[in-house]
């Protein structure tokens, strides 16, 4: 029956690979993005920081110790030195030699019809750099922005009115409706919340204001199915292949 199929298609949550397919491959690398695309993820999420010479680097932490071994602050290090690091072998020796990528390199991997969630971890001075990088970029419309810092995400949306932008949060106040009204007034497209604070009422309240609800980081299939049922727009996971394979 056409209408039932239509309904079930509309209710599917998009599956977003958290830092790429980061359960299996080293997070925030081209290899983890490529693995996520192979697993048919709808989108990849990556984190960005800026180097000392204002290049946009893909890395979660503000320093390189955990994923590259060497203890360097990204914002105080030149991009050439960051590129000389190795961001793969901490995860698995088969990824030895995987570089710490420039954002452009991950953008190049996005297949047609897929999206990249760019999480701004650094100061909002990155916004004009993003603007310059993406100005004529053929994949600009495939980029969505997220940030925990409220001012940063509002400034990003102002700079990129045609791209979706969502505010990240791990908690919600009791009066989350007022918060959502502010998010709407500030022209954001929605919120990207820890799944621990989401229930059907949260999604309904946001929806009534015309806001999308996205969520992270969900590696449990049963929870992913619950979140899809209550209407979350996307589910970010370290295991995109497994979640896609079992999502109803
Ligand atoms: O998708 C949002 C999520 O990535 C936020 O947390 O610490 O993994 O960047 P974190
Ligand atoms: Ca992130």
Automatic annotation (TrEMBL):
What would you give as a GO molecular function for this chain, any one?
phosphoric diester hydrolase activity
Q: Name one Pfam family in it.
A: GDPD
**InterPro entries for this protein:** GP_PDE_dom, PLC-like_Pdiesterase_TIM-brl
One Gene Ontology BP term is:
lipid metabolic process
Protein name stated in the entry: Glycerophosphodiester phosphodiesterase family protein
The chain positions of domain GP-PDE read 13-247
Q: Which Gene3D superfamilies match?
A: Phosphatidylinositol (PI) phosphodiesterase
Output the PANTHER family linked to this UniProt entry. Answer: GLYCEROPHOSPHODIESTER PHOSPHODIESTERASE, CYTOPLASMIC, GLYCEROPHOSPHORYL DIESTER PHOSPHODIESTERASE
Lineage of producing organism? Bacteria, Pseudomonadati, Bacteroidota, Cytophagia, Cytophagales
Query: Which organism was this protein described from?
Result: Rapidithrix thailandica
């Amino acid at each position: 029956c056409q209408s039932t199929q239509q309904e079930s298609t509309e209710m599917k949550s998009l599956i977003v690979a958290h830092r790429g397919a980061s359960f299996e491959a080293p997070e925030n690398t081209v290899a983890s993005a490529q693995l996520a695309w192979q697993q048919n993820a709808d989108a990849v999420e990556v984190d960005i920081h800026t180097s000392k010479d204002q290049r946009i680097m893909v890395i979660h932490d503000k320093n390189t110790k955990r994923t590259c071994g060497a203890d360097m602050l990204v914002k105080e290090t030149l991009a050439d030195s960051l590129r000389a690091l190795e961001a793969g072998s901490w995860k698995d020796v088969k990824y030895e030699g995987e570089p710490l990528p420039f954002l452009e390199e991950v953008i190049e991997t996005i297949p047609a019809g897929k999206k990249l969630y760019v999480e701004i971890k650094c100061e909002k001075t990155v916004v004009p750099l993003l603007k310059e990088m993406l100005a004529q970029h053929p994949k600009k419309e495939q980029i969505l922005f997220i940030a925990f810092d409220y001012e940063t995400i509002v400034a990003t949306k102002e700079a990129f009115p045609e791209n979706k932008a969502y505010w990240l949060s791990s908690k919600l106040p009791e009066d989350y409706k007022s918060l959502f009204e502010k998010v709407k007034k500030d022209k954001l497209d929605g919120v990207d919340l820890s799944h621990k604070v989401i229930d059907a009422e949260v999604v309904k309240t946001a929806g009534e204001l015309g806001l999308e609800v996205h969520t992270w980081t969900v590696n449990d299939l049963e929870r992913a199915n619950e979140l899809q049922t209550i209407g979350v727009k996307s589910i970010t996971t370290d295991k995109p292949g497994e979640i896609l394979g079992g999502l109803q």
